[in-house]
Design brief:
about 500 residues, alpha+beta, 15-stranded antiparallel sheet, 9-stranded mixed sheet, 13 helices, disordered N terminus
Length: about 500
């Protein structure tokens, strides 16, 4: 693989994460009937310009209209649409997101359909709500996934009016915990909204007196400002994205795709790179305290801001210490289970895994066969979307997320404990967000990267979290706030 191909592939691995920070989430909150009136009366369209570093790169439109459904059953029909142009290594990537939903008079979600389109990826999610449970079907073109999520309360859509926050949070420092449902990743999470008081803000050459709120979830923070009617005037997301209420003609006037996206979120480091044959590496790492990271375990040891990585031996030598073995591979249940995007129990996945390993029965020898097959047979393409193993197997293309999901599914189908690691890896003069795998062999966690055919992975792979897609989004809290220093070997 040439250096350019390697760079393109590695830096494209976290496009799905960045897009998830752009798209609008579903909030779930039991609003009082008088608070609903503000939203139900909004019969007009609202447009928001999407900006990245002072460049308008897209827009979001929201349309809310009342409708009658059956005898005596009234509600509202909601339509949202977003269009983005993201520049990735000087190539413009168009992205389209559409949402059609119906809700009751209390704005409890009844049905929804979510469509997402990007180069090399299209998906549609349809769902309906029964009580507090959202039942949905996800069609990726390569796989059909049916699942459900039960929440703490009836799901409520976040519209351009959030008047309920003004009545619920009136004093600076007041907090409100809100569970919400994300239609992009189809996952439920909880966020905490904090009221920061009123402040003057200059927007479009006009001074507004606005209410400032901060929303925190999975260690990430989003700031937004409401006017006295509860309308969102501006919202700032991680990675520099800004949503701003604008007239239609202005919001849709997209003339640029902004700065090169992934370079803007790369982590510049200090210190001198170590030799490639080094057996250990030491880093000084700084990140937000609220970030949900998993730096200890396997080959990593973190204490007092200092992270030490010890390169694994392969093949790993068996250990006679059963207790140590159990501690090192204590997450076997999750690392053996099929999940929504890691379909280890699918017949096609099982059949492919058996085809790859042939007659080999030793997991230590099966793993290199799986690594080599994924590396050689999956075309290196930046795919903006949800990485699922079955779709990747059928399409034969993907970035590091697709590689990691497919390898995890193949290995788990053979009863090899496997996790997906998410973190950063070095490419030339910066660290980029990346995903790879860890497998448990002979009681030890061994890292590997099928995107560059490394077993074990080199010591520039710094893991911050483990887990399938739902857990990986927590790394978004590190965007723009991570500092890395490579320390000399003697330290």
């Amino acid at each position: 693989m040439t250096a350019r191909i390697l760079k393109i592939f590695i830096v494209c691995c976290w496009l799905a994460l960045l897009v998830s920070l752009v798209q609008r989430d579903f909030f779930i909150h039991a609003l009082e009937s008088d608070e609903q009136e503000i939203l139900i009366q909004a019969k007009h369209q609202q447009y928001y310009g999407v900006h990245l570093h002072n460049n308008r790169i897209g827009y979001v439109m929201e349309d809310i209209r009342p409708y009658a459904h059956g005898e005596g059953e009234e509600g509202v029909r909601i339509r949202q649409q977003a269009s983005l142009r993201l520049k990735v290594l000087n190539s413009v990537q168009p992205i389209t997101m559409k949402l059609n939903a119906t809700a009751g008079n209390g704005l409890q979600l009844r049905t929804f359909e979510f469509f997402f389109s990007s180069p090399f990826y299209k998906t549609t999610a349809k769902g309906q709500v029964n009580g507090n449970t959202v039942h949905f079907t996800l069609d990726t073109g390569g796989a059909t996934i049916k699942d459900s999520i039960t929440l703490q309360g009836p799901p409520i859509l976040p519209l351009n009016q959030r008047g309920y926050l003004l009545s619920a949070l009136s004093t600076k420092g007041d907090k409100l915990k809100i569970p919400f449902f994300d239609p992009f990743s189809l996952a439920a999470r909880s966020s905490v909204v904090t009221y920061n008081g009123q402040e003057k803000k200059l927007l479009n050459e006009r001074i507004y007196q606005l209410h400032h709120f901060t929303e925190s979830y999975s260690g990430m923070k989003v700031n937004f400002w409401l006017d006295d009617q509860g309308k969102v005037i501006q919202q700032r997301s991680p990675a520099g994205f800004i949503f701003q209420a604008e007239p239609k003609f202005k919001a849709m006037d997209i003339r640029d795709s902004g700065d090169e996206l992934l370079s803007t979120v790369a982590v510049q480091y200090t210190g001198k790179p170590f030799q490639e044959n080094a057996q250990n590496a030491t880093y000084q790492v700084q990140f937000p305290q609220e970030a949900e990271v998993d730096l200890n375990g396997g080959r990593q040891h973190f204490a007092n801001g200092r992270l030490v990585l010890q390169k694994e031996m392969f093949p790993p030598q068996p250990t006679d210490d059963a207790q140590t073995s159990g501690e090192r591979c204590s997450d076997n249940s999750a690392s053996l289970t099929a999940s929504r995007y890691v379909q280890a129990d699918d017949p096609a996945i099982r059949a492919k895994a058996q085809e790859i390993i042939g007659q080999e029965v030793d997991p230590v020898r099966q793993v290199p066969l799986l690594v080599e097959w994924v590396y050689k047979n999956i075309e290196k393409r930046p795919v903006i979307g949800l990485p699922d193993a079955l779709t990747t197997l059928q399409s034969g293309k993907g970035d590091c997320n697709e590689h990691a999901a497919l390898f995890a599914a193949l290995a788990r189908s053979l009863s090899i404990p496997t996790t997906i690691a998410a973190g950063v890896t070095r490419q030339k003069n910066a660290f980029y967000y990346h995903a790879w795998n860890e497998v448990c062999l002979n009681g030890q966690w061994i890292s590997l990267d099928t995107t560059v055919n490394q077993l074990p992975a080199d010591l520039y792979h710094i893991r911050f979290t483990r887990g399938d897609l739902e857990g990986q989004l927590a790394i978004g809290a590190l965007i723009g706030k991570l500092q890395i220093e490579i320390l000399p070997a003697q330290e």
